[in-house]
């Protein structure tokens, strides 16, 4: 199969505000011997995209193609014989034309070349659209509630921004483990969506005092764990919310990075603080196979219901609008944002 010398992609030529996001012409990705080339149909928009755009996460060189997840069809397989003979590679059953989802920086492009272990064949029950909306947040929910803090039956868990795409999956997964879920969100409409995913209590942080309400709900004890993707605006209050020997899982930095704290802060109630990266939970082929299998089972069973809020065109305006919707405090977003790169 012949490929074009250049492709279209969504990226940046410098860090900055939303205006730096644009549709670019970039060289066709170089395929390393261990990589699979995928023609992209849908790309998922995530908060991590804004971290790279702002410069919070380091970028090696410009232009930088944005995006960390996408779905499409395989157009070229690895050429490395050690890969082709690898048992974990063979278990995935890759084939040209096969439907897959992929994880990795640079996913918002017409073609992506990705290490094979970060490419996941899709079961027939999962569409390309749903796959692009499920991979990153689904794997984050499963890994963080397994390895970050293992949610157990009887736990009381607080999930900030509970009606976002990740918050809804956190909720469903925690409920499947037998936990009681308290969430925070901005509007009554979002609260109802969170409750439809199983949230037991939803606090409107725009009208209620989160710390006070959590302590009321838990009879003054606090929660076993907090999953906080907000960051700067909510972080310090979490120490008043987590019970003795509880865990604070810092998931993201939507409102800005958290300021450094002294380790002594944890000793007041023997708290544990973790700041995991999903990528470091799926580093090996064994890990990525294990967790992706659980993700696709959760989608097939209906445990994970992907609520696609918006699908934007593959254009400068579409990409900018997607990031604006994602980052507007108290905005309408309750679910997942996608970019449609190409027709199926």
UniProtKB/TrEMBL annotation:
It holds the Pfam family ADH_N. One of its GO terms (cellular component) is cytosol. The keyword Transcription regulation does not apply. It comes from the Eukaryota. Signal peptide: none annotated. Residues 16-339 form the Enoyl reductase (ER) domain. GO terms for molecular function: mRNA 3'-UTR AU-rich region binding; NADPH binding; quinone reductase (NADPH) activity. Keywords: NADP, Oxidoreductase. SUPFAM superfamilies: GroES-like (SSF50129), NAD(P)-binding Rossmann-fold domains (SSF51735). This is Probable quinone oxidoreductase.
